[in-house]
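(Fold this chain)
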Amino acid sequence: MWISHPDILYINNVFNILVLHGIAAGEQCQPNSDRVQQSPRGAACRQTLPAMAQRPWRRAGLKHPSLVALVVLLALALLALSYLPSPPNGDHGRAPSPHVAPAPPAPASLLLAPRPQRDVAITPCGDKPPNRETKRQRGKGRRLRGQRAPTPSPCVDHPCRQGGSPQEDRLCFGETVPPWLSEDDIQKMKLLAHGQVVSKSRVPAHGQVLRIRLHADGDTQPTSPGEDCGDGRCGLIKRSTDLYEVVAFHLDRVLGLNRSLPAVARRFSSPILPYSYTNGASRPLIWWAPDVQHLEDTNNDQNSCALGWLQYQEMLRSHSVAPVAGGTACASIQRGEWGRLALFDFLLQVHDRLDRYCCGFEPDAFEPCVEEMLHEKCRNPSELFLVHILVRKSAPSRLVFIDNAGRPQQPEAKLNFRLLQGIDSFPETAVAVLRSGCLAHRLLKSLYTDQELWESQGGAVGLWPLLQVLERRGQILLRYLQEHNLTVVRDTLH
């Protein structure tokens, strides 16, 4: 039994009190004491002493009854102390275990510092390892016990601390190139981001788009300004408001679609360019594909074939290629390409390809489809045509996605589900990414490869709300697939 020093003092005080009371009681009834004669209770004492003479204490040889009283009182006091509560002076009345030394107090700096997080491996998809905090209890029913609140997705909510320093961002996102970016993508992105502007030219019917020719530092032969863009060393400079098209390029690669053209954000300072292009604002620069096939019709040169809405829907229903005008450029497009296009356009809310007339939602008065009086044609579906349906001569069975800026601010109440009309299957790889819940995290890692876009948009903190919108639209699309019992097909053509 371990008794602390305050408890010893406490017992000592009680013992002293008991001893004094015992002595006082003994003195009051001494037979030969003067105090007995003078005490008011002396008579009572004299009357009890003869009776006490026959008590066993005298036969036992004890000289004084006060000793017995003291022993009895002391035993009762010790017994009572064992039932008394601890003194109200904190917890010092309980001694630590003699076998475990108490831990020294932590320094003040450690108490103020945040608790270190467990290391999280930054994988290409940012996937979270399986949750091991849920334990199953053996027995009938195998009920779950010790289960914490479920996480919203299998990915780490913040693979890196948002708003970190450039060094932290580099360690979190820039150690390796994401696997969904091919070597050809990286080479074209380097050309667009660092190539020297050699010449410029206007694109017909696109007043705010400028085509430039680039020369990379590693080129063995100098680039002549007079050469055309057949060698793949040109790019299109678009408006600053079209920076969303750079995000669209990375979205295309993360989903495994591989149908859009490489794009980067860049600030220009070349004296060859007009001042409006060199005012310090970041602009999207899109790689110019030299073999994209265009119609000779000047009014419809943004298509490889003329395809109407009714014709397009009939083609989807019949599971075959419907006859199209403008030659055979679209005759070899595989059926799965339309599922890729519909999924991509729905996430970005791109209307210019499949619904340039805004028939799938109620547009605002300032929408181009309203200002150009295109929305009125929704009453007559035979007048509706698809736009930007393009293929490359080198890959005529695959579509090419251009003008992918879309609408990042489109509210959920106005999402255009007409873009999905007629589509009964979607690519397996893209749907798997949406189901994983890793879309936004993969996009963060991918967008870090474009430092100009990363810095101009405020890094992870600035990009995160935009990527969450894409993540949310992906979940809406998954719910649409489930409600309409649509299927996914394995990618057979990359």
Notes: The first helix runs from residue 5 to 28. Residues 235 and 288 are 5 Å apart (CA to CA). The chain is about 35% helix and 10% strand.
